Amino acid sequence: MKALIRKLTESYGPSGREAELRQIVxxxxxxxxxxxxxxxxxxxxxxxxxxxxxxxxxxxxAHMDEIGLIISHIDExxxxxxxxxxxxxxxxxxxxxxxxxxxxxxxxxxxxxEDKKRAPALSDxxxxxxxxxxxxxxxxxxDMAVFDRPYAEAGSRLIAKAMDDRIGVAILIETMRRLKRTxxxxxxxxxxxxEVGVRGARTAAFHLEPEVAVAVDITTTGDTPRCxxxxxxxxxxPAVKVRDRGMIADPRVVEWMTSAAAAQHIPHQLEVLEFxxxxxxxxxxxxxxxxxxxxxxxxxxxxSPSEMVDMxxxxxxxxxxxxxxxxxxxx
Amino acid sequence: xxxxxxxxxxxxxxxxxxxxxxxxxxxxLRAQGLSAFETPVRGLVAAAWKRTAPKQTVSRLGSLxxxxxxxxxxxxxxxxxxAHMDKIGLMVAxxxxxxxxxxxxxxxxxxxxxxxxxxxHGREPVSAVVILPPAALLPPDxxxxxxxxxxxxxxxxxPAAEAVRLIRIGDPVSFANQPVDLANGRISSPSLxxxxxxxxxxxxxxxxxxxxxxxxxxxxxxxxxxxxxxGAATSAFALKPDLxxxxxxxxxxxxxxxxxxxxxxxxxxxxxxxxxVHPAMHxxxxxxxxxxxxxxxxxxxxxxxxxxxxxxQTTAEGIPTAVIGIPLRYMHSAVETVALEDxxxxxxxxxxxxxxxxxxxxxxxxxx
Lengths: 331, 368
What we know:
- The structure holds two protein chains of two kinds.
- By secondary structure, chain A is of the alpha+beta class.
- Chain A has two domains: about 1-65 and about 160-325, Zn peptidases (Aminopeptidase), CATH 3.40.630.10; about 70-145, Beta Barrel (Elongation Factor Tu (Ef-tu), domain 3).
- Helix content of chain A is about 25%, strand content about 25%.
- Chain A has eight helices and 17 strands.
- Chain A has helices at about 1-10, 20-30, 90-95, 165-180, 200-210, 250-265, 280-285, 310-325, and strands at about 35-40, 45-50, 55-65, 70-75, 80-85, 95-100, 105-110, 125-130, 145, 150-155, 155-160, 185-190, 210-220, 240-245, 270, 290-300, 305-310.
- In chain A, the strands form three sheets. Chain A has an eight-stranded mixed β-sheet with strand order 1-2-12-3-13-16-14-15, sandwiched between helices.
- By secondary structure, chain B is of the alpha+beta class.
- Chain B has helices at about 20-30, 40-50, 140-145, 160-165, 190-210, 230-240, 280-290, 310-315, 340-355, 360-365; strands spanning about 55-60, 65-70, 80-85, 90-95, 100-105, 115-120, 125-130, 155, 170-175, 180, 185-190, 215-220, 245-250, 270-275, 295-300, 320-330, 335-340.
- Chain B has an eight-stranded mixed β-sheet, with helices on both faces. Chain B has a six-stranded antiparallel β-barrel with strand order 4-5-8-7-6-9. A three-stranded antiparallel β-sheet of chain B has the order 10-11-17.
- The two termini of chain B are about 40 Å apart.
């Protein structure tokens, strides 16, 4: 599974530019499900059909897109100005390298500022792609870049850019592979444009009309020096979301998840996230409403080029999803 | 979905005087039901509406829909009257010894939390108080600061092991304050936002039960308004009403607030006007109020209304929507205050408007 995580995290796929991911995921799930579809926005859906009449139509969602930068202007000396694609923290950009779809690298530079105490804003930053002037600049306005950072392992911890949410994508792929028996129709949905406002999940849920939905995404932790307090730690198991800024998870889904975890002795944590949200928030209010929750992988340094998760949490996340899908859903 | 009716008292139809309405409202106010945890209050609302609107369904997210059929030819047009039954409160975010860190459900002002009693809905109900370190013991630079949410704790008094046994992260926490009768027919309580609106729907159904109306009327007690407006959005999608009305509380005049941003308490309901409100709906409410001699104020909503209407209006292919407000003092606090008469008049106005809807209303309807 680590090879898959490496491949997914090192790929290029900012919001709206998920083609490379779609190709990789399609190859990975081919033959593992009953059929694969793609919709107008580029969501990729692999469906495992119901084996029993008693089952539910369950949507699982992990987003393929990652945060990035989009070129808004190139000056006459060939330096590119950028706007954010998703929740970019300018502080995390300084000194970073980025990569464009073509593979072209760029360096993020910081202008001299009068007030050095002020945190840098994106308008203080530029991307240097090695061009001598505007005319010879190899990138254009509208081109998108993502962080360029190799995957690395530090003991049981995995470090990569775009762990948000390629780790969720990897978990769905692995779950599909290992899912032997289920009474349910399971819609493995690899969504687009989550980072710019959960757009892919919105249309995918409208199309799929699930009866129950679970997003698989990352959550932040409260186990690093002087971080905001939060009762989630790396390595203590997947987090069952109770709430975040976008939704309160359906209490029935929370119960389904925690009781499945308890029955299989899967370590897990309960999550209350003070900011951010996931695909589940928009699926919950799709059409006439969908009981929805989220399985979160604890992740340090979210939205930085070095997002860190623990492999045991990843393994346990797959186990928890399998446990949930193998039994009946009682609501 | 079937609805279980608890035997709990609600009100007596024949004597729905001020005392009965007050008791009905207080029954709703005492009921649990934070956003996403509305099951307890839903049962009470279902029971209260059973006599006047027995055909009831529950949405996938938990909103209650109650149909009062009209007398017009089928297929009849239908109007949805929505008031949200969820309420604001807290949620446990971390359990440390007998203390809990918490986050908010809905919007809460941390200034009004210290010193308040709460109930944590854990494995069993746990009493708690929100505490703030005494100013005398704070560093000098922190003394003058307003309380921040992250500095506040719930103290249960429980020993650590017992706290962990009874309380889990994610448990809802509600104001423990009980409704208080103030002079002059005023009621002060947490969660009047929007249980007052639900009680107004009860009044409306009661009125309509004894007078003919051509349209189908669906009363909805919606969920999760304080969080996402998700209950109204999904119920409207399922019910596909021809018209929709959000019934919610609005800012009543209180000391220290500018007159132009508030509405007189006991001055009757407000009728919203602005981009959220279909002009024909606004006119219909104004005409109904004038005809029935109901006092009202026009409430300007230059942008979003901050109510279920914002979701109702843009559901599916769009629904002509109106907003009716009940003036309320001290919004989102433990001592929200309304005049009972405003609740009654709001219900009456809704009934007058719904009863006046005829077969020509929809064909004649234009946005101008």
